[in-house]
Amino acid sequence: MDSNEQRQILNFLYAVCSDRLEQYRNAQDEIKEPHFKELFSHCEQESAEMMSEIHQLLEQLGLEWEEQSTLSGDLHNLWIDFRSKLSGHDTKAILKALLCAEEANLAKYAQECDQIQLSEDSVQTLLLKHYGELKNAVQRLRDFIEKHEKATELHSE
User: What is the pTM of this model?
Assistant: First the structure.
């Protein structure tokens, strides 16, 4: 993989992580339950760490960093905000929107991993590490949604 490809991939994934961080900040503002705030704070911190790792790798490789966001991330942030307001800040709706965003982030990482030649370079290593972290985040969010739905069912009976 040449340095231009590395730069493009890393800057794109930095933008994905930046969008993700913003999604969790917005969710913290919308949902008031403390156990969700803890999850969102963890995911926000995880995103910041991923961004830092990408930025450090760009510097190590002597590649240019470009602060940006993705169009799909910007649109999804607007969608989460709109859905939250439309649903009256319904926790379930916000969680489902976040899950959709996380699945999209995971797909973006998977797509970039597929485009990289199988090699032992630092870009591939970082992408695979982040992919695993996002995969875990998707599962954590699914688990939280399931617990929330069960708790809601119990309260409505």
Answer: 0.82
